[in-house]
Amino acid sequence: MRQPDREFKVKAVIDGDEYGNRQIVDFKIDNSIASDGFEIGTAIPSTLTINIRTTKEIKSNSKVIPYIALSTSNLTWEQIEIPWNQVDVPWNGSGTNWLPLGEFFVDKRERINNVWTFTCLDKLVFADVAYISSLTYPATMKAVWDEIMRRLGWTYDSSVVINSSYMIQVGPAGYTMRQVLAYIAGANAASVIVGKDGVIRFKRFSTSAEPVFEMTPSDYIRAKQTNPIKQYTRMVVTYNTEDDLSYESGSGDENHTLSLENPFMTQTMVNNLLASLKGFAYLPLSMDARGFPQLEHGDIIGFEQDESAAWIDIEIPWNQVNIPWNGIVKYKSVILKQAFSFKGGLKMSIDSPSISEQQSEFVVEGSLTQQVNKLDKTAVKEGKKYYGATITRTEGLIIEREDHLSKAVFNSDELTFYANNEKALWFDLPNRKFKFSGTLEGVDGKFTGTIEGGSFIGGSIQIGSAFSVNNAGHMKAVGAEFSGTISAAIITGGQISGTSIYGVTVTGSTISTRVGSSKGIVMNSGWSDLEVYSGVSSAHLTFMIEDLAEDAGLWFNRDGLITSGREIRISAPGGVFVNGVRIG
Length: 584
What we know:
- This protein has 584 residues and is mainly β.
- Helix content is 9%, strand content 36%.
- It has five helices and 41 strands.
């Protein structure tokens, strides 16, 4: 690839159909792992823009895999530094093996004459869906990562190393799968990319990382340093953006501080992050170079630059000049943004931006910017969670637990409480009724108002201290008053007081109209007698039906003593006795 007369061959496979050099007009691949400066914990989809001359219809979301190879038709043995028996190049000079440049999916298209322009994104775009976990929390970051990979049907390679002790305490409600993947990568000092083979990878960063490729001045066209060397000695991780709560580790000013947002990180994780990245440095630059398709965004590269000058032009004492005698100075940088463009040849541009020291220390805001930032902090935003509450256009106000066990939805058409995604309590608007699918229970055992139902089963019901029904089906009234009608097959036990009692059968041991020692009649089922009390002293008459083995009859006794001699006895077949003397 370093030969000045190199010649590339390209092809693209789209849903199994192959398009070669004659159909491909040009293409451009944009990769990014950061925006304005060095970052970790990102998962940014790459973009392919390809122009193909074709009349064949290409469907939406078709998979597009661009390939590149080097022609070996002009390659001579003098140009090869590998022993001939180790060269994996066909002898016929057809070219090297094909190198895939990624897997992309058609997002939109445009046609000009017979040339179609397809804009495609890599598979990270499919992770922009809500993540609803089925795991039990707390769960390890590794378990969460694996669950997302299984759902998306993706694979990842050995570069993905997740600390086994890192936990996520509660279900990450309100985040997309791509956000969760990025947060997990960030906690492990990495970012997420899709490799050229379509496999998910970590781009991990550390202070000790060495360049994967060394570039000489002949490998690039222009290298422009855009800022002084950037170095980090302090980490600040915001885990709650609403209240601006964060963890930090290390020391240094804003220019030497790496800031990121990650709701899953702890102080221990931030300390570990500092241990990996303390002293990490790179040279911010913008470079146009010959294309080296084996490079990926996130790679550390080294490059040489000729900074020689005549002694007469240098104003620094000679013993303080840190320039090699040949004038070639070596630098190290990281590919934060990368673009490959093919149009007959392969060109590469690399951008490694950084926030300048002045931007870090002095953030000057205009009046409009100040108002926008203030509004951004105070306004309630659509789709953003506020302590479990979210406002959406489709459902209104939603309040949901992070583990999705419960949810409440409030809008003009729906007032509903959910449990495990099933309705628990809701307002039936057409019928003007509240409905409840669970069990009604009072925490203190007290209810007010009217409870109406077809039947009450189990337990006991007590109204005040006067009336109760126990779980055996027995009704009890203590000093209670009832109006209206009480209907029952049998009323047993206790006391019934009232003006009138109507019924067919009254069963009991004693029936009395007497209160205390007053006059009255007492019927006693134990002795089968009827006693009539005069209300004076203990005088009373007893009408006894004696049912003995040898005799049966009717006794009239004044004081209830059969042996008193003051009785009239009519017995069968014994006859009639007065004071014990038979008279008939």
